[in-house]
Amino acid sequence: MGIEGKRVSDTELPGGPPGAWALEARGLGKRYRRGWALRDCSFRLPAGRICGLVGPNGAGKTTLLKLAAQQATATEGRLATFGVPAADSAALPRFAYLGQDKPLFKRFTVAETLRMGRELNPRWDGAEAERIVRAGDIPLDARIGTLSGGQHTRVAFALAFGKRPELLLLDEPMADLDPVARDEMSGLLMAEATERGTTVLMSSHVLTDLEDMCDHLLVVARGRLRLAGDVDTLVPAHTLVTGLAEDGRAPAALDAHTVIETRVQGRQFHALVRPAGELSDDWETAEPSMEEVLLAHLRAPDAPALLTGASDPDAEGNSAA
Ligand SMILES: Nc1ncnc2c1ncn2[C@@H]1O[C@H](COP(=O)(O)OP(=O)(O)OP(=O)(O)O)[C@@H](O)[C@H]1O
Questions:
Q1: Residue 240 domain-assigned?
Q2: Structural domain of residue 95, as residue ranges?
Q3: ipTM at complex level
Q4: What's the predicted TM-score (pTM) here?
Q5: Which residue's C-alpha comes closest to atom 12 of ligand 1?
Q6: Residue 102 falls within a domain, yes or no?
Q7: Shortest-distance Cα residue to atom 16 of ligand 1
Q8: Which of 14, 32, 81, 319 has a Cα-to-Cα distance from 127 of 20 to 30 A?
Q9: Which residue among 28, 30, 32, 64 is best mutated to probe the pocket of ligand 1, counting the most ligand atoms within 8 A of its Cβ?
């Protein structure tokens, strides 16, 4: 992708065989009649990560998930799931997709829905699917059309988990769950990832959920990838800087660094930067939280992109595939 920002060199991940990447995109783009929903998107998502997919409304998150889930076809570029082209039928048993609308047959009962899951999926884990449904006190003989929004979501989760996928693609999965169900589902997701090595790619606007759960991030804005990498390399690549403003503006010396966002309040400026060397001793510095980094990038969608470590397929030493 046309990255003008700097890249942080890899510290942990090797180039790895193609299967090491749950997803690998190269120059991926999707154009609808109104224009490009996603463009020039290149990244790798290492297997086993819980990845938050973040971006403003209309950024291209659902489009990316749909391309990975065979719900849409790419206009340009390539996307692979565990080294298999994402549009290939061989990729089908390896992922489960929970879209925003979570379509289920309204006339089916919950039991019939789970039975359908068993018949369609060779690796079906009926005990797990039923456990998830029962934990929400949902009667197995209830028709899907009579369930509340949150109950409907729980059954959709049960279907997705029951499939025992290697990659879970979730589009704002928690949106209509109550706080207890949210907590339970996020616990399930984390258990899946740690116990089975399941990779999760999950879009959400709830930054606190992402901060609690995710160890990896993809940030998109205006159809372009803005951030990709492990939280513990992406977040420390940024610094919060506070100091005295000069003539009501952030000091010119700040321009030596990659400035994501600046604000002036009274006599002081506050900035989030990616330091390109030593920061002035005149300024106070602090490590930002993940939420602070994400909010700054959401407010500044045109900030230079950053892909850390093995996330960047075009970085030196990462171009094995
Ligand atoms: N089927 C479609 N036909 C035409 N345009 C579409 C279609 N689906 C998405 N788009 C457009 O593509 C762009 C990206 O949409 P997408 O749904 O991927 O965004 P998003 O990041 O998931 O947004 P949100 O956070 O609001 O769910 C938007 O401008 C949207 O209007």
A1: yes
A2: 21-229
A3: 0.97
A4: 0.89
A5: 37
A6: yes
A7: 60
A8: 81
A9: 32
